[in-house]
Design a protein that fits this description.
Layout: H1 12-44, H2 49-98, H3 101-107, H4 109-131, H5 133-151, H6 156-200, H7 202-207, H8 211-237, H9 239-262, H10 268-311, E1 331-339, E2 349-357, E3 361-366, H11 372-377, E4 387-392, E5 395-396, H12 402-407, E6 409-412, E7 421-422, H13 423-427, H14 436-445, H15 449-453, E8 462-463, H16 472-486, E9 490-494, H17 502-515, E10 520-524, H18 528-531, E11 536-541, E12 544-549, H19 551-557, H20 559-568, H21 571-582
Parallel strand pairs: 3-10, 3-11, 6-9, 9-10
Antiparallel strand pairs: 1-2, 1-4, 4-5, 7-8, 11-12
Helix pairs in contact: 1-2, 1-5, 1-10, 2-4, 4-5, 4-6, 4-10, 5-10, 6-8, 6-9, 6-10, 9-10, 14-16, 19-20, 19-21
Length: about 575
């Protein structure tokens, strides 16, 4: 956890002022019992009202100072705590964004959400307790012990006895509770995972009438979390009555010993009153420390989970600046590229070699699991090849800085992704200072113009999180418009036309052709009609290229491609395509 305290460094002055005001508050508080003792011994017992009033005014002054110091302490504590958690959360989120897809999958999205919210909140609370209670308790405890020894040295053994009793109870409880915190955080991850999974797939769950099954899974995980939480709470609840017994027992013991002294020395009354207050302060200080020993281990578990993410470095490294000068004319070349997912026994892609040039459309087709989406995900470096090389504009991909590489790529994922905002903000997502003409052109080419015109606020119409208030086809078209507005050198369409009807698909591709005349277009598709006119079609089977060429050349040379065409065309259409290919 101490590794995360570096985020307090920019606020060292506020931390210093917090510690100073805290020390001032403790000092003022410790003066009050001693002054009360003087009032009793020197004022009340001697019937001297002048001394009583004089010491009373001093007590009032120390009380007011203690209040002012307490207010200042809370102010600086809140200020430092808010800034600390903000900076830590920003740094954590920035680091998560820097991780590659394989690292994200390693932790799981649900776990990363829990770490960003719950775990950082736990660390924030513990840090603030360290800056306040963890400092205040020892200062108050040590100061109270010193003052108690000055007041009644022959009764300090009572405080030692009380402290031993508190430590015995607390250590016994903590030894059982602390190991449960790691289990608690893992169960919390599981709850988050199930909630996210079920809410995301709610339509599928309802469509298959599977609500009861998913509810039972969630209830089982929730019950397990509840049982563990109750177990921890029950054990911790034992601490209050045990501390109460120690506190009351200490008070009684002090009064009993004090009364025995009063038989010979009446002035011991003030000392006894002061000693009771100091003893109470010592016990409360140790109680606070034991509470911190509960909070800090739990926060330490959370800090460990946060540091685990910070320690994880992306396997994909980008140079700060692009090394070399790429060609001005766009081109992509795969040279004997192979790829296997981390931990997988077999390659997903094997010995992939091809080139794509400016103004050309290269399409990829194959059965499910043949490696199409994996192949094109290598271009924006979501993953790196396990062997071989990919060159963009005659420069290795690894030579590009992240900014330069991503500026050249317009990526449309298989599932259209929209962000909460407006139609305009979603189309302009990858463009700095876009003008309305550019956005309208992108919408027109992507065939989004017609449905945008029907919206109440047109381009300022609200888009819900995840695009839940638009249809799948509309979501896909807006995702395509976003890539078009970027005007990249490389367009990547990962089965991005699947939600479009045949007419819209054809019209969109026709409108896109002039726009991409100076760019490379990479298309993954399942429908033959979508890629039929591509300049180059690459057929994949089990991660290997089994065919490469145009539609008609592949009909003549590639059995796998013929089978795909035959499965999608009628017998008459298939025969017609074969006759055309043989000419």
């Amino acid at each position: 956890m101490f590794k995360l305290l570096k985020y307090l460094k920019p606020y060292w002055l506020s931390v210093f002022l917090l510690v100073t005001t805290l020390a001032g508050q403790v000092f003022c508080t410790l003066q009050l019992p001693a002054l009360m003792s003087k009032i009793v011994n020197d004022g009340i017992l001697t019937e001297n009202p002048d001394i009583t009033w004089k010491i009373g005014v001093n007590m009032l002054g120390f009380t007011l100072l203690s209040i002012l110091f307490a207010l200042a302490t809370h102010f600086f504590s809140a200020r430092v705590g808010a800034a600390f958690s903000r900076d830590l959360r920003n740094a954590f989120y920035r680091h998560v964004l820097s991780l590659s897809s394989s690292e994200i999958e390693k932790f799981s999205t649900a776990s990363l959400i829990t770490r960003t919210t719950n775990d950082i909140s736990q660390v924030q609370s513990a840090t603030m307790m360290m800056l306040t209670m963890l400092l205040r308790a020892p200062l108050m405890g040590i100061g109270a012990i010193i003052q108690a020894f000055r007041t009644a040295p022959d009764m300090t053994w009572i405080i030692a006895l009380a402290v031993i009793a508190i430590l015995t109870f607390s250590i016994s409880i903590l030894a059982v509770v602390i190991p449960k915190f790691k289990i608690f955080q893992k169960l919390l991850d599981k709850i988050t995972l199930l909630a996210r999974e079920n809410l995301t797939g709610l339509r599928v769950i309802r469509a298959f009438n599977n609500e009861k099954t998913e509810q039972s899974k969630f209830s089982a995980a929730n019950s397990e979390l509840t049982k563990l939480n109750l177990f921890i709470s029950k054990l911790m609840s034992l601490e209050d009555p045990l501390i109460g017994i120690v506190l009351n027992g200490t008070t009684l013991l002090v009064v009993w010993v004090g009364l025995r002294h009063l038989e010979t020395d009446l002035s011991y009354l003030g000392n006894t009153i002061a000693f009771v207050q100091y003893a109470t302060s010592v016990i409360i200080s140790f109680l606070i420390l034991t509470m911190l020993f509960v909070v800090l281990p739990r926060a330490n578990v959370s800090a460990g989970r946060i540091n685990e993410v910070f320690k994880t470095k992306s396997k994909i490294k980008f140079p700060e600046t692009t090394a070399g000068s790429p060609d001005k004319t766009p081109s992509i070349e795969f040279k004997h590229v192979s790829f296997a997912y981390p931990g997988a026994e077999a390659d997903v892609l094997s010995d992939i070699s091809f080139s794509a040039h400016s103004g050309e459309t290269t399409a990829f087709i194959g059965s499910t699991g043949s490696g199409k989406s994996t192949l094109i995900s290598l271009v924006p470096r979501f993953f790196d090849p396990t062997s071989g090389e990919i060159r963009l504009n005659n420069l290795p991909l690894k030579a590009y800085s992240e900014t330069d590489l991503m500026q050249k790529i317009g990526y449309v994922p298989q599932r259209g992704v929209l962000f909460s905002g407006t139609v305009k903000s979603n189309i302009a997502f990858g463009v700095e200072n876009p003008d309305d003409a550019l956005l309208k052109t992108a919408a027109k080419i992507s065939q989004s113009e017609n449905f945008i015109a029907k919206l109440d606020k047109k381009y300022d119409a609200h888009i819900a999180q995840g695009g839940t208030n638009v249809s799948g086809g509309q979501k896909q078209r807006l995702s395509i418009a976003r890539a078009i507005a970027k005007r990249p050198e490389v367009y990547i369409f990962d089965d991005s036309f699947s939600a479009l009807d045949m007419k819209t698909d054809k019209t969109l591709r026709a409108a896109l052709k002039p726009e991409t005349k100076n760019s490379i277009v990479l298309v993954v598709a399942q429908r033959i009609n979508t890629i039929k006119d591509a300049d180059q079609i690459i057929v994949l089977d089990n991660g290997k290229i089994v065919g490469k060429g145009t539609h008609f050349s592949l009909l003549k040379s590639c059995q796998t491609y013929r089978e795909i065409v035959k499965s999608q065309f009628s017998e008459t259409e298939y025969e017609r395509e074969l006759r055309h290919a043989s000419k």
